[in-house]
Automatic annotation (TrEMBL):
<dbReference type="InterPro" id="IPR002878">
    <property type="entry name" value="ChsH2_C"/>
</dbReference>
<dbReference type="InterPro" id="IPR016039">
    <property type="entry name" value="Thiolase-like"/>
</dbReference>
<dbReference type="InterPro" id="IPR012340">
    <property type="entry name" value="NA-bd_OB-fold"/>
</dbReference>
<protein>
    <recommendedName>
        <fullName>ChsH2 C-terminal OB-fold domain-containing protein</fullName>
    </recommendedName>
</protein>
<feature type="domain" description="ChsH2 C-terminal OB-fold">
    <location>
        <begin position="378"/>
        <end position="435"/>
    </location>
</feature>
<dbReference type="Pfam" id="PF01796">
    <property type="entry name" value="OB_ChsH2_C"/>
</dbReference>
Length: 457
């Protein structure tokens, strides 16, 4: 049906986990077993989107469509920061689709129609003790659409229906969504899901889909709709509702398991319903993401409930007794965009000395303006020394500084994320991760940190 198919995909789940048992014990409520995926204090929808997107790109995608319900900025294009962090230069369209969970499928359909990259990312916040807090999830997924002869999955049909009713909403400036009674939303959604799903299957010529995925902010919809469209292959495990990223995470989980020739019915019910029927091609065998969603979901490190609430701004605690960082200035940020956003250093073309940050004059041989770009965002390194600084300003102290020797050359002092002082060690393998260092004066200061390499921990 469309001239573009999915040629690559990847998802990213933050490493922190909030255990339901800890949540229940703190609030004195029944919360069940398991845990929710939680973004760290230095992660937002933009940084999560970068982590997913950089795993699928091998060159400029043409256009970037970024979907989220939790934009880091309003009245500013968040996709522009993502575009810069991916090192895409100036060419191409980068645009936000924001405001509701339906933005996720909007980005998918836009990228499928025009070709390009769809990035779906969200940080979901619920009030303490709410179903959104317990059943939400933070995460991101990215899908690159390209030529049909290179596709791992083709879109065979798509149907969209829309209706206006009040099921979930959030006023500007509010931290968490409001919800009407779930049964009301179920009665409104089921006819829409039924219509969109049946029409899409008929258009695709599919009688019984192999995989069926239903996503919705209303938990009752997914349960009931799954019974309306039975699948041949049982559904996999998902992290919880992830807002605009939910449909992307669900689709990524299916592509992790689907066999060549199988069909996928994706039903995304949010302020209507978008139904997509996809056919998996033989290229899926070599086109799956390197680290499946199930493996990412099984990993993780626990975070205390009080710390989680502080990260989300729902528990106000005494700040560090240190001067807060200065407001990031626009001119130097613009001048150093390749370094600040894309983590690109320089290498001397004469003696091969690596410079971090980039320099005009070589420290090795003294050559002037003989540098070549040295991209490092995908380069791992080794910790050669470290310190845990309990005096420096940090929203989540202590701040751990590590000196990293990058593979292939280059040494730099960076902040270590997703680890405690007890976990860091000389010789630890680390990899760059795009994070928000701090926010001052309403301006986010983005840069790169390093985190432990998961498979080598």
């Amino acid at each position: 049906m469309t001239g573009h198919g999915i040629v690559a995909y990847a998802c990213h789940l933050p490493r922190h986990r909030l255990r339901h048992a800890d949540l229940g014990a703190a609030l004195g409520v029944r919360s069940g077993s398991g845990s929710r995926v939680a973004a760290s204090f230095d992660e937002d929808s933009t940084t999560l989107g970068v982590e997913a997107a950089r795993r699928v790109l091998t060159g400029p995608p043409g256009a970037v469509f970024f979907a989220t319900t939790s934009p880091a900025y309003l009245d500013k294009t968040n996709a522009a920061a993502l575009h810069a962090a991916l090192g895409l230069g100036r060419d191409g369209l980068a645009v936000d689709l924001a405001g509701s969970a339906r933005s996720g499928t909007g980005a998918l359909l836009a990228a499928a129609a025009a070709g390009g990259l769809a990035v779906l990312a969200d940080v979901r916040t619920g009030l303490p003790g709410s179903a959104d807090e317990r059943g939400g999830a933070d995460g991101a997924a990215a899908f690159l659409f390209g030529r049909p002869d290179e596709a791992i999955a083709e879109i065979a049909a798509r149907v969209s229906v829309t209706a206006e009713f009040l099921d979930r909403w959030r006023l500007p400036g509010e931290a968490a969504s409001r919800r009407w009674e779930d049964r009301f939303g179920l009665e409104s959604y089921l006819p829409l899901v039924t219509e969109a799903g049946r029409r899409a299957l008929k258009e695709a010529g599919v009688t019984e889909p192999d995989h069926v995925v239903v996503t919705s902010p209303n938990p009752l919809v997914a349960r009931r709709a799954s019974a309306l469209f039975p699948a041949r292959v049982p559904a996999g495990r998902l992290p919880g509702h992830a807002g605009a990223a939910d449909a992307g995470l669900a689709l990524a989980e299916v592509l992790d398991r689907a066999a060549p020739g199988e069909s996928v019915l994706l039903l995304a019910a949010a302020d209507g319903c978008d139904a997509l029927v996809l056919r998996v091609t033989g290229r899926i065998t070599h086109g799956r993401q390197a680290r499946p969603l199930a493996a990412q979901l099984a990993a993780g490190r626990d975070v205390p409930y009080a710390t989680y609430l502080t990260w989300r701004g729902l528990l106000e605690r005494e700040p560090p007794r240190r001067p807060e960082p200065d407001l990031p200035a626009a001119p130097p940020s613009a001048r150093s965009q390749a370094w600040k956003f894309a983590f690109t250093g320089s290498r001397c073309g004469r003696c091969a000395f690596a410079h971090l940050p980039p320099a005009r004059v070589c420290k090795g041989c003294g050559a002037v303006d003989a540098m070549e770009p040295l991209p490092l965002s995908a380069t791992r390194g080794t910790v050669v020394t470290f310190t845990a600084d309990r005096l420096a300003y940090s929203p989540s102290p202590p701040l751990i500084d590590v000196v990293v020797d990058f593979d292939g050359g280059g040494r730099y002092t960076m902040e270590l994320a997703d680890a405690s002082p007890a976990e860091v060690a000389i010789g630890m393998r680390v990899e760059p991760t795009f994070r928000r260092l701090y926010t001052a004066g309403g301006t986010h200061n983005y840069f790169w940190k390093v985190r432990p390499v998961e498979e080598e921990r």
